[in-house]
Amino acid sequence: MISRLAKDKIAKNSSALLLGLSSLLILLVFLGLLWKAQPVLQEYSLGQLLSESVWAPLKGKFGFLPFIMGTLWVTALSLLLAVPLCIAASVYLVEYASDRLRNMVLPLVNVLAAIPPVLYGVWGVLFVVPLLGTYVAPVFGISSSGYSVFAGGIVLAVMIFPIMVSIMVEVLQTIPYELRAVSLSLGATRWETIKHVILKKAKPGLLAAVVLAISRAFGETIAVLMVCGNIPHLPKSIFDAGYPIPALIANNFGEMMSIPLYDSALMFAALLLFLIIFGFNLISRLILNRLEGQHS
Amino acid sequence: MRNIKARLIEEKIAKGFMQLSGIIITGSLFFIVGTILYKGLPYLSWEMISQTPQGGFYMGKEGGILNAILGSLYLASASTFLATLIGIPIVLYLNVYVKKGSLLARSAKLLFDVLFGIPSIVYGAIAFSLMVYLGIRASLLGGIITITLLTIPIIVRTLDELIDTIPTDLRHVTSSLGATRWETAKVMLKYIKPGLFTAILLAFGRAIGDVAGVLLTTGFSDNLPKYIDEPTATLPLAIFFQLSSPIPEVQGRAYASALLLTFLILVIVLCSHILASKQKKHKI
């Protein structure tokens, strides 16, 4: 029989090993992407790849600008729609809502988080795209199929609701009660307290939630791919089709591997995505961790 | 100081906007589920769940998506199981063996937070290149590995939060009774048992719904999954493929498949919710 201490030692070492291996994972992903992206980086300069707008792999032209712009358009639109709504709803849940209402709404938000991206995509195709194509675009005198960066923005906005609301509610709940009491006792209305005290105090936390949502929006693949139209050009209006970076990878990977540099270019796209998201995640987590440390 | 009436009106407007936002956000859930239900229900049939695609399935002829349902269940169960096996020791190590608040514990937690945010398409791309390099073709195994990597951070994060709720007394008492740290860890696991299942269910839900990771690594097949080294169909991918078909019959089946997936996810969420409320009352 193994002694109890030996068992303890085995448990310790094997779990440390697992931790080590999974920490190595992120390094491996980064190095792997860098290694696979090397050929295209040797052929073209970084600036060239990022600023050229012609995407014609057959002719050896790899301009990533249309995809970068596609991602930026979609993300910006989704933030424009989601950030005000999420801040307002979170403030309401923390400041006005009864415990009962809050305990009812927050689980529902969690359900929204559990819905797989492909279902958001189906919803986008069934509802958002026809709505934009047949009703909204004609109002502005534009003919559009509905498959547009706007559709992508709407679907993404709904997808980032849960992550923003849950973090924002947590951030707002850490604000000490005394601050509210002082402001209210000075004669401010509740809205003035929110506007001048709570939102000011919660700013870093809210910002972290937004940054986290941005990184989620950047990496979202399938739902956006289903509604964006996927045409590699620079979108000129919100009713124009766009082609975000993740959709590029998903649509083309595995095919046409015979074209020189093509898979390397796609790996470069994945590397770009990885670096941006890694950076954004790191920043927002550091802010959130610090806030948590302050209040506990 | 402005007139109190104007200030109160401003308050009312602001409050109205906040209520509206809340309604939009919660309403979107019902709206999405409602749209899928409305479109998918007419196409749902027993044939869809019980058969594999027959000849001409993608032209609108008979058959079902049993292959994709089974494929998804295999894939999600296997990767959740693996991720749990890997995740639990990691969490225990970080909370039992490493000093709380030490640099190692903090940076490891940060790492898993960041890993959690890496999109599945990146995992998919890197796993795909690795598989090409090793000469493995798209298969159930490739999918399981990719999705396992995706779910480990979910397990680690959720469990870590759970362990934080364990009273420190529990740890002190077990240690003072002469238990080794490993034995303390086992007691802690017992304490968070219902919550553990919640975490596993959440990870399962994530695993079953992911597309971008399996798109490149798992492939697709019309046959029932039999071997781990063969391409395997998955439910989200089946939805995606059928939806892009121009034939209305096939599109209808995509709606019905989406409804099935929605139903599956809602059941998972409901179970995890019940278990989570059990955790609140759970005592050893």
Automatic annotation (TrEMBL), chain A:
<comment type="function">
    <text>Part of the binding-protein-dependent transport system for phosphate; probably responsible for the translocation of the substrate across the membrane.</text>
</comment>
<keyword id="KW-0472">Membrane</keyword>
<keyword id="KW-0592">Phosphate transport</keyword>
<feature type="transmembrane region" description="Helical">
    <location>
        <begin position="265"/>
        <end position="288"/>
    </location>
</feature>
<keyword id="KW-1133">Transmembrane helix</keyword>
<keyword id="KW-1003">Cell membrane</keyword>
<feature type="transmembrane region" description="Helical">
    <location>
        <begin position="149"/>
        <end position="172"/>
    </location>
</feature>
<feature type="transmembrane region" description="Helical">
    <location>
        <begin position="105"/>
        <end position="129"/>
    </location>
</feature>
<feature type="transmembrane region" description="Helical">
    <location>
        <begin position="205"/>
        <end position="227"/>
    </location>
</feature>
<comment type="similarity">
    <text>Belongs to the binding-protein-dependent transport system permease family. CysTW subfamily.</text>
</comment>
<dbReference type="InterPro" id="IPR011864">
    <property type="entry name" value="Phosphate_PstC"/>
</dbReference>
<dbReference type="InterPro" id="IPR000515">
    <property type="entry name" value="MetI-like"/>
</dbReference>
<dbReference type="InterPro" id="IPR035906">
    <property type="entry name" value="MetI-like_sf"/>
</dbReference>
<dbReference type="GO" id="GO:0005315">
    <property type="term" value="F:phosphate transmembrane transporter activity"/>
</dbReference>
<protein>
    <recommendedName>
        <fullName>Phosphate transport system permease protein</fullName>
    </recommendedName>
</protein>
<keyword id="KW-0813">Transport</keyword>
<dbReference type="GO" id="GO:0005886">
    <property type="term" value="C:plasma membrane"/>
</dbReference>
<feature type="domain" description="ABC transmembrane type-1">
    <location>
        <begin position="68"/>
        <end position="284"/>
    </location>
</feature>
<dbReference type="Pfam" id="PF00528">
    <property type="entry name" value="BPD_transp_1"/>
</dbReference>
<dbReference type="GO" id="GO:0006817">
    <property type="term" value="P:phosphate ion transport"/>
</dbReference>
<dbReference type="InterPro" id="IPR051124">
    <property type="entry name" value="Phosphate_Transport_Permease"/>
</dbReference>
<feature type="transmembrane region" description="Helical">
    <location>
        <begin position="63"/>
        <end position="93"/>
    </location>
</feature>
Automatic annotation (TrEMBL), chain B:
<keyword id="KW-0813">Transport</keyword>
<feature type="transmembrane region" description="Helical">
    <location>
        <begin position="254"/>
        <end position="276"/>
    </location>
</feature>
<keyword id="KW-1133">Transmembrane helix</keyword>
<feature type="transmembrane region" description="Helical">
    <location>
        <begin position="20"/>
        <end position="38"/>
    </location>
</feature>
<dbReference type="GO" id="GO:0005886">
    <property type="term" value="C:plasma membrane"/>
</dbReference>
<feature type="transmembrane region" description="Helical">
    <location>
        <begin position="196"/>
        <end position="216"/>
    </location>
</feature>
<dbReference type="InterPro" id="IPR035906">
    <property type="entry name" value="MetI-like_sf"/>
</dbReference>
<dbReference type="InterPro" id="IPR000515">
    <property type="entry name" value="MetI-like"/>
</dbReference>
<feature type="transmembrane region" description="Helical">
    <location>
        <begin position="110"/>
        <end position="132"/>
    </location>
</feature>
<dbReference type="InterPro" id="IPR051408">
    <property type="entry name" value="Phosphate_transprt_permease"/>
</dbReference>
<keyword id="KW-0472">Membrane</keyword>
<dbReference type="Pfam" id="PF00528">
    <property type="entry name" value="BPD_transp_1"/>
</dbReference>
<dbReference type="GO" id="GO:0055085">
    <property type="term" value="P:transmembrane transport"/>
</dbReference>
<feature type="domain" description="ABC transmembrane type-1">
    <location>
        <begin position="69"/>
        <end position="272"/>
    </location>
</feature>
<feature type="transmembrane region" description="Helical">
    <location>
        <begin position="73"/>
        <end position="98"/>
    </location>
</feature>
<keyword id="KW-0812">Transmembrane</keyword>
<comment type="similarity">
    <text>Belongs to the binding-protein-dependent transport system permease family.</text>
</comment>
<feature type="transmembrane region" description="Helical">
    <location>
        <begin position="138"/>
        <end position="156"/>
    </location>
</feature>
<protein>
    <submittedName>
        <fullName>ABC transporter permease subunit</fullName>
    </submittedName>
</protein>
